[in-house]
Amino acid sequence: MKRLPLILTTVVLTLAGTGMAGAHGDSPSPARSAGLYNTQFAWPSMEDIFRVATLQDYNTRLVVLTTFILGLASGLIGSFLLLRKRSLMGDALSHACLPGIGLAFIIMVAAGETGKYLPGLLAGAAITGVAGVGLVMAVRNTSRIKDDTAMSLVLSVFFGGGISILAMAQDMPGASAAGLEYFIYGKTASMVMQDFWLLTGVAGLVLLGSLLLMKEFTLLCFDEGYGKSLGWPVHTLDLVMLALVTLVTVVGLQAVGLILIIAFLITPAAAARFWTENLKKMLLLAAVIGALSGWLGAAVSALLPRLPAGAVIVLTAASLFLLSMIFGSARGVLKRALGHARLKRKVGRQHLLRAVYEIQEAHCENESQAPANVPVPFDELSRKRSWTLKQLRKLIQRAGREDHIESFDGETLSLSESGYGEAARITRNHRLWEIFLITHADIAASHVDRDADSVEHVLSPDMVRELEQKLDMRTVPASPHPLNQGESLS
Amino acid sequence: MNWYAYDTWIVIIGALCAIAAALPGTFLVLRRMSMMGDAISHAVLPGLAVAFLVTGTRASLAMFAGAAIVGVLTAVFTQWISSWGKVDRGASMGIVFTTLFAFGLLLIVQAADHVDLDPGCVLYGAIELTPLDVLADIEVGGILLEIPRAAVVLGAVAVVNLLLIVSLYKEYKISAFDPDLATTQGVNAGLMHYLLMTQVAVTTVASFEAVGSIIVIAMLIVPAATAHLLTDRLGLMLVLATGFGALSSFVGHVLALWLPPLMGFAGTTTSGMMAVATGLFFLLAWLFSPRYGVVRRIGRQRLDVAELPEEERLA
To answer: Across chain B, which distance is largest between two alpha carbons, in Å?
Structure first.
């Protein structure tokens, strides 16, 4: 199973590679032989890069600024959604907007208007969007149906209704409904000034709302039940939060499309989560990552030919997510793997030193005295725990690097002074913890070794001091259970 | 309203799609992975694009294989991100399917923007046109039956799904309710997870190639959710879910034929109306389910209060 990821990745990359080869290489395809292909590909000149970077073109400026602001707002509000484990709400919501668009169109045409009046369509989208969200909440709160099923249910039924309504609107006399469905697929590269102002207004509102209700939203994210017990209007706050999400979604939807708005609500927040455990920092970071993806993606799309802005922005955000997932300083995969390896090394070292100390104890004649730091035979040590010889040699080598070993010739092992002190301290901690478990937690003496083992490596100095006081022990106590060889094999 | 032979075929094809989808869909609902159908239906775009670019044709089989592979990959990637990165599963699903969709869009625009392969055509397979694509003519008792290709494809998927679930019923059940217990009982819960995901991917792809994505997303989840409100037994839930799905197919088509003329419109799509019909059945169950319905719940609260002794009722 371990190699499965590797194999799958190779397959995907190969497939993607052949796809690219089909696009740019010489493989014959019907379309190419028909002469429809334009295969010229030119890297942008420095001049072009400069023009885009300084936002000199009107269109580029508009697209970059709008996606920047949208990324900012949705990153912020998306963080709350992520913490509420409701990231896919944006997905359900954006699908639920479709029937509203169709209905608004029909009503406006019936009233003798053009039918494609933007504020009217937006209002329709917002109304069914809110209805969809309300239905999700109602189903979740009044039945055994869970969040995800409720969202999926609203998504498919509303979207199906929307398609039916649009199909009906298609043959209304006097107005053309053609292209109405592109309202939810977006038009990133052909935005107008109106989109920019709408988005700026919504972003401002989201910013203001999140700042004013920061404390309430935080509590809602982390402990809804506690908020309820304090008498807070939890459901109302929930609706306010979702109203802000609806605003961002509806306005973003017609500017950049369904997929991009879903990605914007989820990806920057999830990426930010890897860098910090602090909510305020996470909100800030999510907004920055969202804005950065919008800006970078839109700029790249403007520079290179035939790259749809929406897709490039999604891929930019996904790359930032991947980087964060690997290198994130708070919960990144690398950081956790390193921490795990470090703990494993520490546990291994402590096991080695304690084993040596216990053998020295066994060799000691006078039981009331601390054992002398005598050399220990390698054979005896290897029988002490379920180590393989290779593992044990590696452990000794590593302990040597930390100056715990005086000498090791393959037969006998002697500890250095610091190693001996460390061994005594570790053994003492282990026994203190064991005795504490026996006297205060009623764990049988025969089982206590294993139980102690799972905690002792992370005992803090404060904790050890407390144990000393509680048990009134200053020296290394005797083991509460017999120290037979291979004890931990049992 | 006139009913022709192809109306019967549309209902049959819709019902077959409903049966094929409701079986794995029931387990999606129980495992809290309901959004998977939607995620897969968006995520398969790069699979379609790569299959098209490699083979150069829109031949059904290559496109189907490409889409199904990427569909399974969606589940695999979601699992990786949520287990390695400790990201909420909904969020990782969202990240995976938006990224795959964007990648697919990029491939299409880069290479084939003038070819008839756009997200719209993938998302809206038309169930109304399926009876025209006839695979075989069979004469039964003097009546010529023209069997549409979609009916054969979806029928095969439904049979495979049914056989899998019947033969591995115990394994499906235990790994849906308690994966850890399944592992201790010697059932490979991970394998069952991917088997279910493969089923969902294949069913989704086969359905929307034949009848459009919106039907299958609705049929996966809504009938199963309806059944979930009516019973606590898994076997009965599977039966009810397929039943409601098939019924929705009929009601949806009738609605599509009957409703628009009533309101002065020329017509509408059957697929959208079938999704709406599944929603109507859910609404009924939500309100009137004998055990879990809203009405019953309110009634029970009143009743409970009425049954209390006088002094406690005041408190």
So the answer is: 80
